[in-house]
Amino acid sequence: MTSFSDITGRLERLAIEVPSWAYGNSGTRFKVFGSPGTPRTVQEKVADAAKVHELTGLAPTVALHIPWDLVDDFKELATYAGDLGVGLGTINSNTFQDDDYKLGSLTNADSAIRAKAVQHNLDCIEVMGQTGSRDLKIWLADGTNYPGQADMRARQDWLAEGLSTIYDQLGEDQRLVLEYKFFEPAFYHTDVPDWGTSLVQCLALGERAVVCLDTGHHAPGTNIEFIVMQLLRLGKLGSFDFNSRFYADDDLIVGAADPFQLFRIITEVVRGGGLDDDSDVALMLDQCHNVEDKIPGQIRSVLNVQEMVARALLLDTAALDAARTEGDVLAANQVFMDAFYTDVRADLAGWREERGLPGDPMAAYRASGHQARLAEERVGGHQAGWN
Ligand code: AOS
Ligand code: ZN
Ligand code: ZN
């Protein structure tokens, strides 16, 4: 039987990358509700991310989105981040907001637009050289809204061609992480809609091309933990974009909609070695905090992941294996559910305090008055743009 003290070593190494855009005003196509204290600059986003890490010890790196987070000097930004106790992480390219990309970017029928999208990703690789980032994450909004609108097969070939040009420019220690999404903003077909497409495109590129699994990017009812298992088994799970959803890609706080699904996903991550010392699976958040304050929203998120990791690490794998071997269905399910229902909150709080962290980071943030200070200092933050 595993006890909490048996798992603290692995908990200690848990690192969840936060996205810069989670700290900006975001929203839906219906409305972006600004909130006081919202960052107005990349530096302020990094400072907010550093506050999350300061109170939780869980979020040592910040993912950037280019061009949203463009600065004149990324080395200076990396130094600024380092002074605050965090590093710059994944670089997310953006070929979904330029008017040229209305009919696609890497899959556009116009070779000049495809070349422009490739160049943007090459520019992101330049940024990676300055930030020291390992991962270039590519998510494409590419797709169509109507049957007949485009040649889906030609688009796969163009995609492969563009990704190959990008991949060839990566450094030996860098990776191309290809994210899939089953729909939105395109509604008839998406050019990287599922893990199979991302996988085959990555296999064609090479060993440093891996899949990003965004937990909000599947049709309702999908067994996401099966995909996690399969990609880990193939050595092709590069990273997660954690969030939660009730309907589509809602980008809500991870674990808020379905903590049991998060637990099931994490158990497969643990089973597949994704939390081992030598694992290069990146755990990242990809969320928007439209109606809640962003820093506490991110604190809640990383705590939710930490809690499910603790529960998954407490899974009695010996008892589970024995029940499975005996074909004892109910016993195996009970062992699994016992781990899920284990309340680890008090143990986690005590362990945090032993390490000089607040036992309850959410309460600590609330009591700090930090949000009110930001609202006062960041005049105009309320209207700060999308990112
Ligand atoms: C879009 O739905 C994807 O999840 C992207 O990973 C991400 O949201 C985008 O790059 C930032 O908005
Ligand atoms: Zn994502
Ligand atoms: Zn998404």
Can you give a write-up of this model?
GO terms for molecular function: L-rhamnose isomerase activity; metal ion binding. Keywords: Isomerase, Manganese, Metal-binding. InterPro entries: L-rhamnose_isomerase (IPR050337), Rhamnose_iso-rel (IPR013457), Xyl_isomerase-like_sf (IPR036237). With 387 residues, this protein is an alpha/beta fold. The chain has one domain (10-301): Divalent-metal-dependent TIM barrel enzymes (TIM Barrel). 44% of the residues lie in helices and 12% in strands. It has helices at 4-12, 42-56, 74-83, 111-131, 152-167, 195-205, 224-233, 259-271, 294-313, 317-325, 329-340, 345-354, 361-368, 370-377; strands spanning 16-19, 61-66, 87-93, 135-139, 143-144, 175-179, 189-190, 209-214, 237-242, 282-285. The strands form 2 sheets. Strands 1-2-3-4-6-8-9-10 form an 8-stranded parallel beta barrel, surrounded by 6 helices. The longest helix is centred in the first third of the chain and has 21 residues, at 111-131. It is globular and about 60 Å long. The model has no long low-confidence stretch (mean pLDDT 97). The protein binds D-allose and zinc ion (2 copies). Residues 21, 65, 92, 139, 179, 181, 214, 241, 249, 286 line the site of D-allose.
